[in-house]
Amino acid sequence: MGNISSAVGAAKIRRASRFMGKDGRAFLVAIDMQSSSGAGPDLDVVERVAEGGPDGILSTWQIARRYPEAFADCGLVLRVDGGVTQMGNFASGDTFSLLYGAEQAAMIGADAVVLMVYPGFDDEAPSLRRLTGLVSECEKIGMPVIAESIPGGWVQDVPWDTEHISRGARVCVELGADAIKTMAPPDLGDLPSVAADCEAPIFVLGGPKRDSEDEAVQYARDAVAAGASGIAFGRNTWSASDPTVMVRRLYEAVHGHPRNR
């Protein structure tokens, strides 16, 4: 069977190599949630982030369209879900929708897509169905899917502990996700068991702004040492005193060496 090849499989591997290093690790910068918050990073921060040389950037449609040069040397991971804002009261259930599909992601040059999934949430079914529908679309064109697994949703219907983080990641992978973005367990010493139970790369999200940039860099280093395939940091990158320098520091924390450009 070794002589059988797949154009679609080859496409997925090629796209993944745009944001995954040869060491199997990745440093991703998340600049993708202002489509719901309407606030956050400076409009042109993606240019300063890109100058530092991350492996990939999680991006909104507007950033991908407005700043194509920023993705010349790194992967573009398009945020495809949303449809609600944080300007009013939070809804009691899952009100997200898929805003863009696989064809639109390919049209804008995305190397992967990312969407929220809420395993364990009281209203989990819509997000699980969104994931499976998107996986089906993306499999047809060889587009990697990153599931941002938030067990129990942001209201934490289930605890963000090792068991639920691990089970949430496993559910997303079993439904077809190619990689997982999720929080690390409160004790990073439990992260190896999460990674061992997940047949896909796990990118640890940065969470709230750290007290210092040194703390954020050390957390990234510790997460990778504990078994994560990389990190997906947002405000801990683009809100740094110098985002370009911070990107370089975090890249080295993940890969163990500076980026050669």
Notes on the structure:
It contains eleven helices and ten strands. It is of the alpha/beta class and 261 residues long. It has one domain (7-85, 93-255): Aldolase class I (TIM Barrel). The model has no long low-confidence stretch (mean pLDDT 94).
Features:
alpha/beta, TIM Barrel
User: SSE string, helix = H, strand = E?
Assistant: HEHHEHEEEHEHEHEHEHEHH
Q: Which structural class do the helices and strands define?
A: alpha/beta
In the residues, how many domains can be counted? 1
Helix percent band: 25-40%
Q: On the 0-100 scale, what is the average pLDDT?
A: 94
* Major beta sheet summary: 8 strands, parallel, barrel
- Rg result: 17 Å
Low-confidence stretches: none
Number of helices: 11
Please describe the topology of this protein:
Layout: H1 7-16, E1 26-31, H2 34-37, H3 45-52, E2 56-59, H4 61-66, E3 75-79, E4 81-82, E5 97-98, H5 102-107, E6 112-117, H6 125-139, E7 145-149, H7 162-174, E8 179-182, H8 191-196, E9 202-205, H9 213-225, E10 230-233, H10 235-238, H11 243-255
Parallel strand pairs: 1-2, 1-10, 2-3, 3-6, 6-7, 7-8, 8-9, 9-10
Antiparallel strand pairs: 4-5
Helix pairs in contact: 3-11, 9-11
Short description:
By secondary structure, this protein is of the alpha/beta class. The chain has eleven helices and ten strands.
